[in-house]
């Protein structure tokens, strides 16, 4: 049996990544990214076709169920991709001291297994980008971020700041971390084909935000002995989302269903998501059930990120 669901994900991120004011993306920036994306559309199609021919059997050693399908393919491969830029802020729950070099960031967190299969293209050349560091972080099944488990996922961010007596908050500068946990944070470099894979757990939700995963791409990076990033350049920052029907199915399972203190924000109601879809981009991840039948037993999400290597910003070592 062939699977017909496929993802060539398009990532477009807002000027702010979390609750609070979200300055709109400038029209000129949307048009610039769209032009770069269109120029590389044929390369994106060939790139993704090659990726989809890889068989899923390599993951069978990490599962307790049998792969029953052939490698998935898409009859009409989507050619759209999106360019990410460093102007996008990463939200208050990034914490570089906990972002660790590894390919499995699940740390035993309960929930549905999710493998992120990522391809990165250099939009300046339309070719796969080797050796860039792809960095992910997201909340757990009940809405908490590691390193910030002392902050309630059910309390609006502005209210949290008041409770913490923080009168002046600056994104990316103000330190709100509460602990040294590292779950659901990880990063790994792309190989010679511009590809990498990360194992994680399907995220839950927290107040005022749709279910999402943060992603950054770094070039010229250096890590410390403990696997955290020491320095590098950020060339893209974005968020990925999931289909509403998929979210409903997963949120009906434990431990997700036990998160009853707040209602889940849908994609349609999320102001950040509405900015992410400007310009016709599609930031929603399509998934393949790892056993070919049931996504609740685990899934693979395929993502293609277009990186504008002409726009970079230096990172400060932490």
UniProtKB/TrEMBL annotation:
Domain annotation Intradiol ring-cleavage dioxygenases: ranges: 98-219
Superkingdom of this protein's organism: Eukaryota
Pfam families reported for this sequence: Dioxygenase_C
InterPro entries found in the cross-reference section: Intradiol_dOase_C (IPR000627), Intradiol_dOase_core (IPR015889)
Keywords: Signal
Record bears the keyword Lipoprotein: no
CDD domains in the cross-refs: intradiol_dioxygenase_like
An MF annotation (GO) of this entry: oxidoreductase activity, acting on single donors with incorporation of molecular oxygen, incorporation of two atoms of oxygen
Keyword Ribosomal protein: no
Signal peptide: 1-17
PANTHER family recorded: INTRADIOL RING-CLEAVAGE DIOXYGENASES DOMAIN-CONTAINING PROTEIN, PTHR34315
Name of this chain's protein: Intradiol ring-cleavage dioxygenases domain-containing protein
Organism in which the protein naturally occurs: Aspergillus wentii DTO 134E9
Phylogenetic classification of the source organism: Eukaryota, Fungi, Dikarya, Ascomycota, Pezizomycotina
């Amino acid at each position: 049996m062939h699977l017909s669901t496929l993802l060539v994900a398009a990532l477009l991120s807002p000027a702010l990544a979390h609750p609070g004011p979200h300055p709109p993306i400038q029209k000129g920036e949307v048009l610039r990214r769209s032009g770069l994306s269109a120029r590389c559309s044929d390369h994106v199609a060939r790139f993704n076709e090659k990726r989809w021919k890889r068989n899923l059997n390599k993951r069978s050693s990490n599962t307790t169920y049998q792969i029953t399908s052939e490698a998935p393919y898409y009859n009409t491969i989507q050619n759209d991709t999106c360019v990410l830029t460093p102007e996008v802020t990463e939200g208050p729950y990034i914490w570089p001291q906990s972002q660790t070099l590894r390919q499995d960031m699940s740390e035993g967190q309960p929930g549905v297994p999710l493998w992120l299969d990522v391809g990165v293209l250099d939009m300046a050349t339309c070719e796969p980008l080797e050796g860039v560091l792809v960095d992910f972080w997201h909340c757990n099944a009940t809405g908490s971020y590691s390193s910030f488990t002392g902050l309630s996922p059910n309390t609006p961010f502005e209210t949290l700041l008041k409770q913490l007596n923080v009168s002046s908050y600056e994104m990316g500068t103000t330190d709100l971390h509460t602990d040294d946990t590292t779950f659901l944070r990880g990063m790994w470099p792309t190989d010679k084909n511009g590809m990498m894979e990360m194992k994680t757990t399907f995220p839950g939700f927290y107040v005022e935000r749709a279910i999402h995963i943060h992603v950054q791409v770094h070039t010229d990076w250096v890590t410390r002995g403990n696997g955290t990033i020491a320095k590098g350049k950020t060339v893209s920052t974005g968020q990925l989302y999931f289909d509403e029907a998929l979210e409903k199915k997963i949120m009906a399972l434990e431990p997700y269903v036990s998160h009853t203190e707040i209602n889940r924000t849908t994609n349609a109601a999320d102001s950040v998501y509405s900015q992410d879809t400007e310009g016709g981009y599609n930031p929603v991840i399509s998934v393949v059930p790892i056993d070919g039948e049931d996504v609740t037993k685990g899934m693979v999400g395929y993502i293609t990120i277009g990186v504008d290597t002409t726009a970079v910003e230096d990172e400060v070592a932490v």
